[in-house]
């Protein structure tokens, strides 16, 4: 009897998987957004889109992707581009390690794969900056392979539809979700395709799309969901409970001061070290404020006494778990600068450089700053 019950449950689960896959494919056929990277099967173009979309909204990525593909249309263009070029194209997307890994991976593909984008999951996964999700997305979307994907959108859909109550960050629950995602993409290929030649590609995209557009974190549109009739969370009134994520750690607040030093039509900027957040990008001299006067902070940062700093602007932004307030000031040194880390550049020269978003906003303020006369 136990074996009969297990067989019955297995069949029921298989039927639920096939039904879910078919409904997702039908829904995606009707409701998929017309995104530029969906008009191609070029693995390079799809890879660039997937890296850009990490922790970034689709509407933000579209102009970046379009500009990138126009400037660097092939792997060889990316591999041979200057670091300043790729950073400028990426400026504003944040998490700049992503773009440096893109170029590293392009060089690996040229040297190890003869310039041809690898087609096996293991080879794609071995590229710098590519994890399990990204490798699965590329292999399924570009090559229609039955490789699963599991990002935040997919986790939300699967936990709600199938009633998976554990924390998806734990090893056991995460493994269960990966298995479920794999079962769905295999079912799309084997049992629910209705003749679709790109079923694996469309199945994975449908899961991501459903989580982005319908099964949203708050106030999901269950009336528009193709899976609503069989959704565990909807039946049980537990939509707000799933996925069962642990609360994030409280944000840490930090305060910085940036100093805009200008003389004879030029401004002082410096380049961030390679091994820090926003490495390689340019910035105005700045220092974290931990008490003490602003004049003391300016002297510590610039290594020279200055006149009283004059407020320019205040910028609030976030980096990972930090909530940062950046106050920018214009300053006039009262002696020769011993600041050896930077360069003096004109506004047109500054505009050609890549800045973190907060410092780019400082730069945007400078057109309204009247430079003091030289003595």
Describe this structure in words.
The protein has helices at residues 2-31, 43-53, 58-71, 75-80, 83-90, 97-112, 121-125, 132-143, 152-162, 171-190, 199-213, 232-236, 294-302, 347-351, 357-365, and strands at 252-263, 266-271, 282-283, 286-288, 310-319, 322-331, 342-345. The chain has 375 residues and is an alpha+beta fold. It has 2 domains: 2-151 and 162-205, Hypothetical protein, domain 2 (Endonuclease III, domain 1, Orthogonal Bundle); 252-368, Nucleoside Triphosphate Pyrophosphohydrolase. Strands 1, 2, 3, 4, 5, 6 and 7 form a 7-stranded mixed sheet that branches. The radius of gyration is 26 Å and the shape is elongated.
Q: What can be said about this structure in brief?
A:
Strands 1, 2, 3, 4, 5, 6 and 7 form a 7-stranded mixed sheet that branches. The protein is 47% helix and 13% strand. It folds into 2 domains: 194 residues, Endonuclease III, domain 1 (Orthogonal Bundle), CATH 1.10.340; 117 residues, Nucleoside Triphosphate Pyrophosphohydrolase (Alpha-Beta Complex), CATH 3.90.79.10.
Task: Describe the structure using short key phrases.
47% helix, Endonuclease III, domain 1, Nucleoside Triphosphate Pyrophosphohydrolase, alpha+beta, disordered C terminus, 13% strand, seven-stranded mixed β-sheet, 375 residues, 7 strands
* CATH class placement of the largest domain: Mainly Alpha
CATH structural architecture of the largest domain: Orthogonal Bundle
| Rg estimate, integer Å | 26 Å
Q: Largest sheet, if any?
A: 7 strands, mixed
Low-confidence stretches: 370-375
Topology order in helix (H) and strand (E) letters: HHHHHHHHHHHHEEEEHEEEHH
What's the number of domains?
2
The residue fraction in helices comes out at 40-55%
Outline: elongated
- The CATH superfamily title of the largest domain: Hypothetical protein, domain 2
Tally of DSSP helical segments: 15
CATH topology of the largest domain: Endonuclease III, domain 1
